[in-house]
């Protein structure tokens, strides 16, 4: 077997490997999932209890805009939690299976110390996942940082929760950025918007479009 033929075989095998890798990389986090129907009745807007919805939320040209001030009241008279304006997705609470949240988010510069998306429900905590923004970085809770520069741009967020495997995956712009164990709990649901955390800025805002809830095909 001459050296030219061996070299050709080598380059061919490299090309095959690269093609296979591209096929893997090209996979989308929603592959194998079914997008479930959503309408306005599924979007429960939680906002400071003493403020009309329109003073903290708008929906124009397909974009949900949610904002809150650090001095705002909680979302109910009995709540001891911090200020928030959030979309609580109703109709798709779950306790088994593989579920996914997808949405395109936008955080304007200056918003900090805030949770912009939650996977609610856990055994020893309130949440299984929080996506927070601190000084322009998007993080899982306080750390680790998943994206260092998130201000003033649209980004695609996909969060997959596999109850059976007890795993949570976070994709940003289609790329797997983080994977962790879940935190248990009997029931879960998704939220997005702004929910003040530690070291919060006075004004907090996030915008969302293309919100979906998906379930893995059986």
UniProtKB/TrEMBL annotation:
The keyword Signal applies. The keyword Secreted does not apply. Residues 40-213 form the Alginate lyase domain. InterPro entries: Alginate_lyase_2 (IPR014895), ConA-like_dom_sf (IPR013320). Residues 1-26 form the signal peptide. Keywords: Signal. It holds the Pfam family Alginate_lyase2. This is Citrate-binding-like protein.
């Amino acid at each position: 077997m001459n050296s030219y033929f061996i070299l050709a075989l080598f380059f061919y095998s490299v090309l095959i490997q690269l093609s296979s890798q591209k096929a893997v990389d090209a996979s989308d986090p929603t592959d194998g999932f079914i997008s479930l129907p959503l309408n306005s009745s599924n979007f429960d807007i939680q906002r400071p209890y003493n403020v009309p919805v329109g003073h903290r939320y708008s929906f124009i040209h397909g974009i949900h805009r949610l904002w809150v001030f650090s001095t705002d009241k909680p979302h109910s008279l009995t709540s001891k939690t911090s200020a928030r304006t959030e979309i609580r997705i109703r109709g798709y609470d779950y306790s088994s299976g593989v579920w996914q949240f997808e949405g395109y988010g936008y955080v304007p510069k200056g918003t900090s110390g805030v949770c912009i998306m939650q996977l609610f429900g856990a055994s020893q905590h309130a949440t299984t996942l929080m996506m927070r923004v601190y000084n322009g970085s998007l993080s899982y809770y306080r750390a680790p940082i998943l994206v260092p520069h998130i201000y003033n741009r649209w980004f695609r967020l996909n969060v997959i929760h596999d109850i059976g495997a007890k795993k949570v995956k976070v994709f940003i712009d289609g790329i797997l950025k983080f994977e962790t164990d879940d935190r248990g709990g009997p029931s879960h649901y998704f939220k997005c918007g702004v929910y003040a955390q530690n070291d919060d800025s006075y004004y907090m805002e996030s915008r969302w479009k293309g919100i979906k809830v998906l379930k893995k095909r059986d």
